Amino acid sequence: MSPPAVRQQPTAAGRTGGIARGIADEAIAVLRGSFPDGAAEIARIRSERPDRPTVVVVGETKRGKSSLVNALLNRPGLSPVDAMVATSTYLVFRHGEVNHAAAVLPGAGRPVTIPIDRLRDWATELGELPEGQPPPRMVEVECTAPLLTNLTLIDTPGVGGLVAAHAEIALHAARQATALLFVVDASAPFARSELDFLRTASESIDLVLFAVTKIDAYRGWRQIVETDRALLRTHAPRFADAEMMPVSSQLFERAVDAPAPEVARVLRTESQVIGMQIGLQSRVAAKADALHDANVLRGARSQLAAYFRALAAGIAAVDPDPAKVAQMRADRERLVAQRRSDARTWQLTMRAQMGRARTDSMLDVQREVRDALHRWRIEIDRADRDSLKALPREVDAVLQATTLRVFDRILGRLRSVTEVVLHQMFAPDELEDVYAGLARAPTIRATLAPPEARQQTVEDKIVMFGGVAAGLSAGRLVAFVPAMLGAGAASVVMAPVSIGLGLAATTWMVFSRRRVAEKNHLKVWIVEAMTEARASLESEVASQFIDAEHTLTLALDAAVQRRVDALDAEVRSIDAALKLDAQQKDRRRQELLAKQAVIRQVVAKVDTTLQTLQTSGHGAQAGVQLPALGGGSA
Ligand SMILES: Nc1nc2c(ncn2[C@@H]2O[C@H](COP(=O)(O)OP(=O)(O)OP(=O)(O)O)[C@@H](O)[C@H]2O)c(=O)[nH]1
Ligand SMILES: [Mg+2]
């Protein structure tokens, strides 16, 4: 059964979206002739929209997340469900013309096709993988379910189960969300840990919808929903009025085998799954549009501001102030000297800052591994036979979470380094232009060596030899350039997943050959495994920094060149102005002022629309600062 199509009503949000798109068109039209890079940048932001808004399903273990995903997709048993087996990796469900599944494995560059009916083996704790095969980092499933034509769904491992690292993996998946679907069940009100997880997971996601599952099994579910709402009011007031959707995946599934169509219809109605399908489509689809529109407008605004400043410089150049002309020539000389000099001061600063960030990151790795080893030793002492058998999966999940943590901190540090160096290189009033230029980073990226060229470095050999994520180099540069500039969050979020460090195949083999029940053997194994993991992680961190330094140097160098070019253009226009007579000057000034007036109008529209998107609660852009245009105007 397919979910009923949602008829698009001309809502306020829809109207705002239409206005937003119209304004972006206007901005592109205004910039196209005289400021083509700015127009191209807006077009890029607009085109880089994820194909479908993404709903990430999160919650404590065994609340019925996977069952709910299956019900929403109307594909019983697709995402593995079990009273015992917990989802152990995250599963991305996308629309596809045919059903297809692929696993992102540590050690493989691209996803590996897996049988779609074997998801239980590949994505759950107790599944059976081929010998020596570490579990995947992520499983991507394409299927024809109608809901997926509008949304991508992600099922995550439950939080609060035996494997603590699952929480981190789920949180990581949650950061890709357009909206979260937080799953609780009707057996009991929110646990404290659920509220804690909710707060963390929703830090950067505006829209959280709540599903209260298993209402077929708990007659008192209405009371539980009331108590849940009261708990939200007290402990997470942001969600006091959030939508809570009671649902029973089981009733929905039972409709498939119902003895009569009438019974099936009643079961589906009682399950309330269809209402939720509709809710997800209308609320999340609308939200995604508004969010995307807000981003496009934000990009448009900064490009318009850059053009406005260029025009202001043009106006000033019509009647050149001799002092300003001298200053401009001096600025140009300073920047050119900065580029030529062997010991560029900004490079020294950058190296020093990078060195410090690298040392801190290495210390992170050492501390993480040392702490983990300590915990594993204690756990081995306490463990029974079954938990010893499950040990490598758990160690692997912890390593994945550790990688994510370490790389998150690296990103934070790289951003600080970039900030410090930029502030040293440019005057505060130059920075906005510099950022606008840096945001057009693809030209810089294109000049770097393609990932294949790095395959044969010693480090790559070590990485491949160790069976660890060789796919890293492919994702690295693409992820880090925008990251340093504070943009492109989605690609950054994805990168550490595809590079997720894990136990090497050899380590798994050794584990299976060791006498698992003998704790002393296991303690030796865990030391070997962690030593190997530490070496791999350190080598990854080191190469991340080498690449980051290279990339940042190129980006900053290009920024200086762009600034020199801009100053050259200004000096040229001043020289031309000196040759104009009074009437010509006046005409030129009027021309430029008219262009500025047009920009001012478009910027005013951008600002109003952004405000509407924010205040209507669809934009989720609260806190975005919109600095006024420079030059004392607009
Ligand atoms: N009665 C009833 N049981 C349900 C319902 N939904 C899920 N269950 C049961 O709850 C158990 C856990 O379901 P899952 O869908 O695997 O739960 P999960 O949250 O994905 O679990 P993890 O991935 O391990 O965190 C299974 O035994 C399901 O059959 C429901 O609507 N009604
Ligand atoms: Mg599950």
Could you please describe the fold and organization of this structure?
- By secondary structure, the chain is α/β, with parallel strands linked by helices.
- It has 2 domains: 54-271, P-loop containing nucleotide triphosphate hydrolases (Rossmann fold, 3-Layer(aba) Sandwich), CATH 3.40.50; 331-568, no CATH class.
- It is built from 22 helices and 9 strands.
- The protein has helices at residues 12-32, 36-47, 65-73, 119-123, 165-174, 192-201, 221-235, 249-254, 261-271, 273-318, 322-340, 345-382, 385-389, 391-425, 428-438, 442-446, 458-465, 472-484, 489-499, 505-513, 519-578, 582-615, and strands at 54-59, 90-95, 100-104, 112-114, 138-143, 152-155, 179-185, 207-213, 244-246.
- It has a 9-stranded mixed beta sheet, sandwiched between helices.
- The two termini are 55 Å apart.
- Residues 1-8, 440-499 and 618-634 have low confidence and may be disordered.
What characterizes the major β-sheet? 9 strands, mixed
Low-confidence runs (pLDDT<50, min 5 residues)? 1-8, 440-499, 618-634
Q: For the largest beta sheet, what order do the strands appear in spatially?
A: 4-3-5-2-6-1-7-8-9
Number of domains: 2
Instruction: Report the structural category.
Output: alpha/beta
Approximately what portion of the residues adopt beta-strand conformation?
A: 5-15%
Structural shape: globular
Terminal-residue CA separation:
55 Å
Number of helices: 22
What's the overall average pLDDT, rounded? 76
Rg, nearest Å: 28 Å
Q: Helix content range of the residues, please?
A: 55-70%
- Give a list of the ligands: guanosine-5'-triphosphate, magnesium ion
Number of strands: 9
